[in-house]
C-alpha cells in the first residue's frame, strides 16, 4: 500500500472513531444546523490563520470556539430564535472569511482543498495532528459521557441535580470545533457535518441503547471511510466527497431494513 493511501486510511479511521460518539450527540440534541454554522465559520479561521501565520487547524478551532461564544452571547441578549442566530453567524463568518482572503494577494489558497478536503495529500505531520486531535476529543467525550448524556435526556433535571449545564453545552461545542479543525484535511469543512450526522442517523434506527448507537455509528463511519477511499482509488473520484457518498448510500440501504422497536 502506498504511503499516502496508508496515511489517508489511518487519518480517516481516526476521524470516524471520534465522529461516531460526537455525531450521536449532534443527532440527539438536534445540533445539525449548529455543526453547519461551525463549518462555515472555519473559513474565517483559515483566513485568520493565514493572516497571523499560525497553524490552520488551530486557527479553525479558535475561530469555531469564538463563534460558539458569540452564539451563547447573542442568545442571551437578542430575542431571536436559535436557527435565526445560527443563520446570521454562518453566513456572516463565511463572507468575512472570503473577504479577508481576497485582500491577501501574496497568498495562494486552495479553497477547494479546505472546503472539500484533500485526503490523499496527507503528510506524516498532518497525520500526527489528526490522530492527536482525535485522541483528545475522544478522551473528552469519555470523561464527559455521563454528564452530557444526562443533559441530553433531561436538561432541567440535570440542572436540578447540580450539573453545570451551560458549561457542558459549551464543552460539547468546543469538542465539535476540535473535530472540525481535525477533519478539515480529510473531508473538508463543508462535509464534516455530513460525516457526523449520517452514520449516527443510520445507527439510530437500529440501536436499543445510547452505547449501542455509538458503536454502530462508529463502525458505519469506518466502513464509509474504507469504501470511500477504495472508490477514490479505483475510479479517481475526490476522496472526501466519496466518503460522504458512501455514508449516504449506507443510510439509504439501512432505511430499507425495518427499524428495531
TrEMBL record:
CDD domains: TM_ABC_iron-siderophores_like. Keywords: Cell membrane, Ion transport, Membrane, Transmembrane, Transmembrane helix, Transport, Zinc, Zinc transport. It is found in: Cell membrane. The chain crosses the membrane at residues 6-28, 40-73, 85-107, 127-145, 170-201, 213-235, 241-259. Its main location: membrane. The keyword Transmembrane helix applies. Signal peptide: none annotated. The keyword Transport applies. It is a multi-pass membrane protein. Involved in the high-affinity zinc uptake transport system. PANTHER family: ABC-TRANSPORTER METAL-BINDING PROTEIN (PTHR30477), HIGH-AFFINITY ZINC UPTAKE SYSTEM MEMBRANE PROTEIN ZNUB (PTHR30477:SF23). This is High-affinity zinc uptake system membrane protein ZnuB. The lineage of its organism: Bacteria, Pseudomonadati, Pseudomonadota, Gammaproteobacteria, Pseudomonadales. The gene is znuB.
Amino acid at each position: 500500500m502506498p504511503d499516502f493511501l496508508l496515511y489517508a486510511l489511518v487519518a480517516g479511521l481516526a476521524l470516524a472513531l471520534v465522529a461516531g460518539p460526537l455525531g450521536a450527540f449532534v443527532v440527539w440534541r438536534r445540533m445539525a444546523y449548529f455543526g453547519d454554522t461551525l463549518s462555515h465559520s472555519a473559513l474565517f479561521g483559515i483566513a485568520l490563520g493565514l493572516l497571523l501565520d499560525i497553524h490552520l487547524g488551530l486557527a479553525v478551532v479558535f475561530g469555531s470556539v469564538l463563534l460558539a461564544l458569540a452564539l451563547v452571547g447573542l442568545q442571551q441578549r437578542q430575542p431571536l430564535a436559535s436557527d435565526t442566530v445560527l443563520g446570521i453567524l454562518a453566513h456572516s463568518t463565511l463572507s468575512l472569511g472570503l473577504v479577508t482572503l481576497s485582500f491577501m494577494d501574496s497568498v495562494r489558497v486552495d479553497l477547494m482543498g479546505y472546503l472539500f478536503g484533500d485526503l490523499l495529500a496527507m503528510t506524516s505531520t498532518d497525520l500526527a495532528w489528526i490522530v492527536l486531535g482525535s485522541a483528545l476529543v475522544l478522551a473528552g467525550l469519555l470523561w464527559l459521557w455521563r454528564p452530557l448524556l444526562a443533559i441530553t435526556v433531561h436538561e432541567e433535571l440535570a440542572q436540578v441535580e447540580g450539573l453545570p449545564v451551560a458549561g457542558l453545552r459549551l464543552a460539547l461545542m468546543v469538542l465539535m470545533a476540535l473535530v472540525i479543525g481535525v477533519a478539515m484535511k480529510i473531508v473538508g469543512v463543508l462535509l464534516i457535518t455530513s460525516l457526523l450526522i449520517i452514520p449516527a442517523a443510520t445507527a439510530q434506527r437500529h440501536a436499543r441503547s445510547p452505547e449501542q448507537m455509538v458503536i454502530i455509528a462508529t463502525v458505519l463511519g469506518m466502513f464509509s471511510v474504507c469504501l470511500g477511499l477504495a472508490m477514490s482509488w479505483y475510479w479517481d473520484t475526490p476522496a472526501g466527497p466519496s466518503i460522504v457518498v458512501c455514508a449516504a448510500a449506507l443510510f439509504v440501504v439501512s432505511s430499507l431494513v425495518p427499524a428495531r422497536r
